[in-house]
Write a structure and sequence with these properties.
This protein is an alpha/beta fold and 559 residues long. It has a domain of 129 residues: ANL, C-terminal domain (GMP Synthetase, Chain A, domain 3, 2-Layer Sandwich), CATH 3.30.300. It is built from 15 helices and 26 strands. The strands form eight sheets. Strands 16, 17, 18, 19 and 20 form a five-stranded antiparallel sheet that branches. It has a four-stranded mixed sheet with strand order 2-1-9-8, with helices on both faces. A hairpin with a 6-residue loop joins β12 and β13. α1 packs across α2. The protein starts with 16 loop residues before the first strand and ends with a helix.
């Protein structure tokens, strides 16, 4: 295999394994050499079916079959399209329909167990009689599209990011280098394979680094997060990846009696990314699991996105998180001022830019901004994707020509300080109230901390007729809560309003009302549309006069 595919086929090792740990059953294990042979068989069949250069939709449960099919697509020069298995609800079915239409895939692959269930999609398995020895490496251009990584749809309709063979290889090497001079031995985790962090940061990174891989299903870990840490302990995993939610979930849901026999001293890299990283989450994880060997220096906060294949920056192995505290007023004004004051706002550094060129720009003019000034994070480098599949307008708007070449406008806000990248929020989700910059995730975090029965929240801005912006918080109350919705709303509003310093409207809703993407991100714009469209069944609402007027105006227009 040519080096620009994954670096795996050039050196598949018979002494390295991939193990999938199903719930309640024996581990399914294959060596890298066996995976390679199975992938060559898939590639041989795909090439013989005329699928070189064509999209192939991959609908697989967690396990080794997906990895074989994905590698087979790369080996054949076909364009893999990872997608969630559409068996868990209408939202997943709708998403797969969108991906099938957008990608133009005329072949859908799945495992034997799901062929019948996916008959309406004409899904099939590959021909098991195909010979791996008949496969011949295709002449693949590094600029050719390797796979379509569909975005989560947290702010818009999912888009197919065209990740190239060259971009994939470069980003795998960028990620590998955060381990420093000590090669990674074993990578383990549970993130879904259709998520960029689960695909690149977990599965493909293990193959690229020549490391063992230990996989669990996302559903099993969400149900019992101790399975994640038990797998790390039992298999001596030294590298894992998860979003902030994963570390918070493990801290809250793992019981004291489940810690018996757990040893996390083997873990030297715990990468956190894919969503805002909170120092409170990291501190709580360290405090909870330090007694069983977890070290703070093992934490590796990072920043990345599918449009850059995955990683942009990440804290190097062994350094631990860099945390700085800033005045709230300076963050609201867009020019940060560090402070030792405990009342300041702590932010976690996401690592130093290395092989990727990271700059902060004015979102309107594109002009470069000084260190410590909040602006749009822009990225340049070989890991950048080719664009969005079938969407030239979005490609032109996101992948722009900068003074030094091609540049990615990430849509994320942040700043550089002393070499570290700090991320503050999403440009499209920023709420500006009387010249103050408010970040939705800060409001949501304050709400969760305000009441023990507070669940997931979604904060967004609503504009009135005079173009003034007002804060609305859709807040779930936990399922087992016996709190009166009115008293709950008053308590949350009191705390949140004092912390953010502006008037906040609240809509209290049942658990499960706040929509999330497939990777767990809150769909704030979608919640805003539901709120303005009258599609939120509320247990109780407290709306400011301005927001109530906006709602009344919308209702009048609908009538």
């Amino acid at each position: 295999m040519t080096d620009f595919v994954t670096g795996f086929r050039a050196r598949p090792r018979p002494d390295r394994t991939v193990a999938y740990l199903p719930d309640g059953g024996p581990a399914v294990v294959a060596t890298h050499l066996e995976l390679d042979r199975r992938a060559r068989a898939v590639a041989s069949w795909l090439a013989g079916s005329g699928m070189a250069g064509e999209p192939v939709l991959l609908l697989y449960p967690a396990g080794l079959d997906f990895l074989v099919a994905f590698l087979g697509c790369l080996y054949a020069g076909a364009v893999a399209v990872p997608a969630p298995l559409p068996l868990s609800g209408s939202s997943r079915v709708d998403r797969v329909d969108l991906l099938l239409e957008d990608s133009g895939a005329r072949l859908v692959l799945t495992d034997e167990a799901h062929v019948a269930a996916l008959a309406d999609l004409s899904a099939r398995t590959f021909d098991a009689t195909a010979s791996p020895d008949s496969w011949r490496p295709p002449d693949v251009d590094p600029r050719a599209v390797a796979y379509l990584q569909y975005t989560s749809g947290s702010t818009s309709r999912p888009r197919g990011v065209e990740v190239t063979h060259g971009g994939l290889t470069h980003n795998l090497e960028v990620f590998r280098r955060i381990s420093g001079d000590v090669p990674v031995r074993r990578i383990g985790g549970w993130l879904p394979h259709h998520h960029d962090m689960g695909l690149v940061g977990l599965q493909l990174q293990a193959l690229h680094a020549g490391a063992d891989l230990v996989l669990l299903s996302p559903e099993s870990v969400v149900a019992r997060p101790i399975r994640w840490l038990r797998a790390i302990s039992d298999h001596r995993v030294d590298w894992t990846v998860a979003p902030d939610f994963g570390y918070a979930w493990a801290t809250r849901r793992i019981r004291d009696d489940e810690l018996a026999g757990l040893d996390l001293s083997c873990l030297t890299m715990a990468v956190s990314g894919a969503e805002p990283i909170r120092i409170s989450t990291l501190d709580a994880f360290v405090d909870r699991f330090a007694p069983v060997g977890f070290r703070r220096t093992a934490l590796n906060p990072g920043y990345g996105l599918a449009e850059s294949t995955l990683v942009v920056t990440c804290t190097a192995r062994g350094r631990g998180p860099t945390v700085r505290t800033f005045t709230a007023a300076s963050l609201a004004a867009g020019r940060v001022v560090p402070t030792p004051d405990a009342a300041g706002v702590p932010l976690v550094g996401c690592g130093e830019p290395g092989d990727m060129d990271v700059r902060i720009a004015d979102p309107v003019t594109g002009a470069a901004l000084d260190d410590g000034v909040i602006g749009e994070i822009t990225v340049a480098g070989p890991s950048l994707a080719a664009g969005y599949h079938g969407d030239p307008a979005a490609t032109r708007a996101t992948f722009v020509t900068g003074p030094d070449g091609r540049l990615l406008r990430t849509g994320d806000l942040g700043f550089l300080l002393d070499g570290q990248l700090y991320v503050t929020g999403r440009l499209k989700e920023l709420i500006i109230v009387r010249g103050r910059n408010l970040y939705p995730h800060d409001i949501e975090f304050a709400a969760r901390e305000a009441h023990p029965d507070a669940g997931t929240g979604a904060a967004f801005g609503v504009r009135d007729a005079d173009a003034g912006e007002h804060v609305v918080l859709v807040q779930e109350v936990r399922r087992a809560s016996r709190a009166d919705p009115r008293e709950f709303a008053d308590t949350v509003l009191d705390v949140v309003t004092r912390q953010v310093g502006v008037s906040v409207s609240i809509v209290v809703v049942r658990p499960g009302t706040v929509r999330r993407t497939t990777s767990g991100k809150v769909r704030r714009r979608h919640m805003r549309d539901l709120f303005l469209g009258g599609g939120l069944p509320a247990l109780h609402s407290v709306l400011s006069p301005a927001v109530a007027a906006v709602v009344a105006d919308r209702e009048g227009k609908r009538v």
